[in-house]
Amino acid sequence: MVKPSCLRLQGNTLTLALLTRGNIIGHLQNDTGGQALGKVICFRIGHDDFRQLIFSQADLAWLVFESMNIR
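^ that's the sequence the OP posted. Answer follows.
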């Protein structure tokens, strides 16, 4: 499980989500961090590479769309 979070102006930490296996994090701002709760393998893909992947894989594009819609 991964707990992405950011530091608020008041100085406290705001947890943005609790992500489990198969979740997509999406774009994170520069002030966003995270904490792994257990063993985690995380992959990063650049914006242009992600865009090309989504254009070429309709099934993957639909999975990403559904994941975003759930949030």
